[in-house]
Design goal:
The structure holds 2 protein chains of 2 kinds. Chain A is α+β, with helices and mostly antiparallel strands. In chain A, 47% of the residues lie in helices and 15% in strands. In chain A, the strands form 6 sheets. Chain A has a 7-stranded antiparallel β-sheet with strand order 7-14-21-20-17-4-9, with helices on one face. A 6-stranded antiparallel β-sheet of chain A has the order 10-13-8-3-19-18. A two-stranded antiparallel ribbon of chain A has the order 1-2. In chain A, helix 5 runs antiparallel to helix 6. The radius of gyration of chain B is 32 Å and the shape is rod-shaped. The longest helix of chain B has 24 residues. By secondary structure, chain B is α+β, with helices and mostly antiparallel strands. In chain B, the strands form 5 sheets. Chain B has a 4-stranded antiparallel β-sheet with strand order 4-3-7-8. About 6% of the residues of chain B have low confidence. Chain B starts with a helix and ends with a helix. In chain B, helix 1 packs antiparallel against helix 2 and helix 4 packs antiparallel against helix 5. The chains are: A alpha+beta, B alpha+beta. At the A-B interface, helix 5, helix 6 and helix 7 of A face helix 1, helix 2 and strand 4 of B.
């Protein structure tokens, strides 16, 4: 025999853990450590057959509430709420457990899981939800037995049956869950916006470039975005985000650009991408270089092919982009050269001298570029993310002393050298590379792929893409990221985002429209399939008709008997109409109407006679009366 | 939580709310299935007296093919019994303590089947017809004065010992004439002026026919109650009892079925 109390107690521990674990990384240390301590303490106390009384717990919970709530502000209300939920759950675990207390544990755990969705949108949530749903169902059923009699004990076989039936519930509710999820009412905009702020970290992609800020760059492997598009050759994977065209002190920034008109109708194939960025604070929308147009999110577009969302995409969004894979962006009407020849506040003498070297008269832009590349290669500059030059003039340090730097050093120094040489140049920030996920058919671009390169203006041709980092020693994208398992997991996360996280009112309406349109525009497929479908449908309807005909009673006697039995079954559900003869039935159910029917029917039919019209009418009348009496 | 989901547009909250709604729907269906397909039969004991609490056994069978029924409470006329688990095709029996008011043929009003299963937020009920009817005998009412003999089981009846021929010697009395000669105590008679006779108790008592209309009592019900008491008392004493109901006479008998027949007659007397 298994005591229901013990089962319920074990279940409540599991459920509470499922509520706590998804929240755990985001909690304050107090809540984070109080819960496991309380759980361990309650298990220890239970082993000794006791629990803390309300006289201890009520003041404790009030004190904890006051302590945590004192840190409340509009900015961290979600965090405070999560802390409180976990603390209350922990206190509930410590206390005595009546049926009501168990229900509170279940509800608090569910709320904890729900609040975790405000911190993290990963697919792991589904696992937690399914597990919690399963355990909640089982716990609620077991709790019903507990309410019936708290001391009840079930035999192992009985317990197995109870658990099996309670597991049936979450399994059966899964398809209904999907239907509800698709149909539940949604709004395009939230009523109260503050709930949607989630803690998004600053990303590798940056809106300013100032080399020399720190001696190392951390390699953040977090996902920047995923882009569904065909697989492209590696050298073409430049994702354009922002163009930095001027200086603020010594840092590259984006300044309002002079009017110009760029044409992106250059030669090259057009690639359509569907991009799913991770939530971030940057409004720049990356797309393959050179993006021609973008849709799916409200944005502003500038002439240097930079797309900026009107609202920071701090929730999950997606957008479509069309890009022309080309190295040159044409400009009609020329550019304002002076704007693109401005220099930072400090440029070292050595760099100025090198710039003068490049600006010798008689050299074309392409020759200057070649000279620059030769200079870079001659310096033996290596690509690195640690041990970077810092100090008063990091670019000078990079070119002549340390000779190591990341893409910011390469791009920044070459653009300044080009400007010194009288060639308009600007920086382009974005990402380079990407891991193609064959399962999902998309590129996975992580923050460590953030990259800066240079665009050089060629008179008559336009802006030419130049990546000075390629002139370094040992520059290559680190491969080996494509481990199959990682890709599988990422594909799972991607589809989770695609199907669940980004589902919104618009998609809901689109789905309804599609279903409606499909239903309206249903056509038989053409060709050989058409007659096949026709024949199948005809065959099915014939079969259905035949089955109906077979089931239909042949004579009016059979029909009236069938109606009679139906009515009797409804009126006397336990009479067992199918297990006894008519006379026996009449005897068993003491009803004069019934007896009369049986008498008339038996008189005729059991003597191999047909029912007379008046008899039939009488029988029908009896059936009518019987069916009316039902209510 | 639903409001939070709509407000934040957070699909994970939508998932939670959907799962709760789905769970509610499924638990509703399961609760409905749980109390469906149950058939109830009630077995009443042979003797049920009006106004007296009687143990009645109730038998519930789960006629569903696969699904067991859990935590079923069956109540009949306010008295209820519970079944933790009803496996398909395996009937379970419980008992109810019921009292029926008034004699006559009774039918049970139907059993109310209820269950908290699967979730203890609501109780679902369904009523199930309980087939069959049974007689409720008049409540026995002691009728001391009219208890004419036999081997009584209570003190007051001792003075009404029936005289017999083949039992124990009860006492010696004067000869009143009419006693069989074999009962005359010759030895004692020789010592007295009058004949002395042995008074023996009876083993095989004389049959008696109760006439309902002549039984004591203020009204018919009281007379019938006395009748029921007498039938039980006399038959317990081994004395054959018959019954005269108006013009109808039921010949005396002393078996248990006969007793039940008599009580049954009393139960329905005047109810036609």
């Amino acid at each position: 025999m298994v005591r229901i109390k013990a089962v319920l107690s074990a279940l409540s521990v599991c459920v509470a853990l499922l509520g706590y674990l998804p929240l755990q990384p985001y909690l304050d240390p107090l809540a984070r450590w109080f819960f496991p301590a309380a759980l361990a303490f309650s298990l220890y106390r239970r082993g000794r057959g006791g629990s803390l009384s309300g006289r201890v717990l009520t003041p404790l919970s009030i004190a904890l509430f006051l302590y945590v709530a004192s840190g409340f502000s509009m900015a961290n209300m979600i965090l405070v709420t999560a802390d409180l939920l976990v603390l209350f759950l922990a206190i509930r675990m410590l206390g005595e457990k009546s049926g009501r207390n168990y229900l509170q544990i279940l509800a608090l755990s569910l709320f904890c899981l729900a609040s975790s969705s405000l911190f993290n949108l990963s697919a792991l949530f589904l696992l937690y939800l399914l597990l919690l749903l399963l355990l909640l169902a089982v716990s609620l059923v077991v709790l019903t037995f507990h309410a019936h009699d708290p001391e009840i004990a079930l035999a192992r076989g009985e317990l197995k049956k109870v658990l099996a039936v309670s597991c049936l519930m979450p399994v059966a509710s899964l398809p209904i869950l999907l239907v509800f999820f698709v149909l539940m009412p949604r709004t395009p905009y939230p009523f109260w916006d503050f709930l949607n702020r989630d803690a998004v970290k600053e990303v590798g992609f940056s809106e300013t470039v100032s080399p020399g800020g720190s001696s190392s760059v951390s390699e953040v492997k977090s996902v920047a975005f995923r882009a569904v598009c065909p697989k492209l050759p590696e050298p073409r994977l430049y994702w354009r985000g922002i163009v930095l065209n001027g200086f603020q002190d010594n840092a590259w920034v984006r300044l309002p650009m002079p009017p110009e008109q760029s044409l992106r109708l250059g030669r090259g194939e057009t690639v359509h991408q569907e991009i799913y960025p991770e939530p971030s604070r940057t409004r720049y929308l990356p797309a393959l270089n050179i993006p021609r147009q973008l849709s799916g999110v409200r944005h502003d577009e500038s002439a240097d092919a930079v797309f900026r969302a009107r609202r920071a995409p701090d929730t999950r969004i997606k957008y479509q982009a069309d890009s022309i894979i080309s190295e040159v962006m044409q400009v009609t009407g020329g550019i304002e050269r002076d704007f693109y020849l401005r220099l930072p506040r400090t440029v070292s003498a050595r760099v100025r001298a090198q710039g003068r070297e490049l600006s010798r008269p008689g050299l074309g832009v392409e020759e200057k570029l070649r000279l620059l590349e030769r200079f870079f290669r001659a310096q033996g500059l290596s690509f690195a993310t640690t041990g970077l030059p810092i100090g008063a003039d990091p670019l000078d340090d990079f070119l002549y002393a340390k000779k190591r730097g990341n893409c910011e050093f390469f791009a920044s120094s070459s653009a300044i050298l080009l400007r010194l040489a009288g060639v308009p140049a600007r920086l382009v920030g974005g990402y380079r590379g990407g891991t193609y996920n064959e399962m999902g058919g998309y590129y996975l671009v992580t923050e460590d792929m953030a990259h800066v390169w240079v665009e050089v203006y060629l008179e008559g041709r336009g802006w030419l893409t130049v990546d000075p980092s390629a002139w370094s020693v040992g520059f290559s994208r680190r491969g080996g990221v494509g481990q199959t398992l990682r890709m599988y997991l990422d594909a799972l996360g991607f589809y989770w985002n695609k199907a669940v996280i980004t589902y919104d009112l618009e998609k809901q309406l689109a789905l309804a429209r599609t279903v409606g349109a499909k239903a309206r525009d249903f056509r038989f497929p053409a060709g050989w399939a058409r007659p096949l479908v026709g024949f199948t449908l005809m065959g099915l309807s014939l079969a259905a008709l035949y089955a109906l005909f077979q089931r239909r009673p042949r004579t009016r006697e059979e029909r009236v008997l069938r109606r009679f039995l139906r009515v009797v079954r409804r009126r006397y559900p336990l009479a067992g109409t199918d297990r006894c003869g008519l006379y026996e039935l009449a005897e068993r159910i003491d009803d004069p109407q019934l007896r009369e029917f049986v008498a008339i029917y038996g008189q005729a039919v059991y003597r191999d006679q047909r029912l007379q019209d008046d008899e039939l009418a009488k029988l029908k009348e009896i059936i009518r009366v019987l069916s009316q009496h039902q209510s | 939580m639903g409001v939070a989901a709509v407000n934040t547009g957070n699909n994970l909250l939508f998932l939670i709310v959907s799962s709760m709604l789905a769970f509610m729907a499924v638990s509703g269906v399961l609760g409905w299935l749980n109390i469906r397909g149950l058939s109830v039969t009630v077995h009443t004991p042979d003797e049920v007296y009006a106004g007296l609490e009687t143990l009645i056994s109730i038998r519930i069978e789960n006629r569903k093919r696969f699904l067991p029924s859990f935590l079923i409470t069956a109540s009949v006329s306010g008295s209820s019994t519970s079944f933790i688990l009803l496996d398909p095709g395996q009937p379970e029996t419980g008992s109810l303590l019921l009292a029926f008011q008034g004699r006559g043929m009774h039918e049970l009003p139907g059993a109310l089947i209820g269950s908290h299963f699967p979730v203890n937020f609501f109780i679902r009920y369904t009523s199930v017809r309980v087939p069959g009817s049974f007689p409720v005998f008049p409540a026995p009412l002691a009728a001391v004065a009219q208890s004419p003999g036999g081997t009584p089981d209570a003190g007051t009846a001792r003075s009404h010992l029936a005289k017999g021929y083949d039992g124990e010697l009860a006492k010696i009395s004067d000869y009143l004439g009419g006693e069989p000669l074999k009962l005359i105590h010759w030895r004692l008679s020789a010592k007295h002026e009058v004949f002395k006779v042995k008074e023996m108790t009876a083993t095989a008592t004389e049959p008696v026919v109760l006439e309902v209309d002549l039984l004591p009592g203020r009204d018919l019900e009281e007379r019938l109650s006395h009748g029921a008491f007498l039938i039980n008392r006399l038959l317990k004493g081994g004395r054959p009892v018959g019954l005269k109901l108006g013009d109808r006479i039921i010949a005396p008998g002393s078996t248990r079925p006969h007793r039940l027949k008599l009580l049954g007659e009393l139960a329905v007397y005047g109810k036609d």
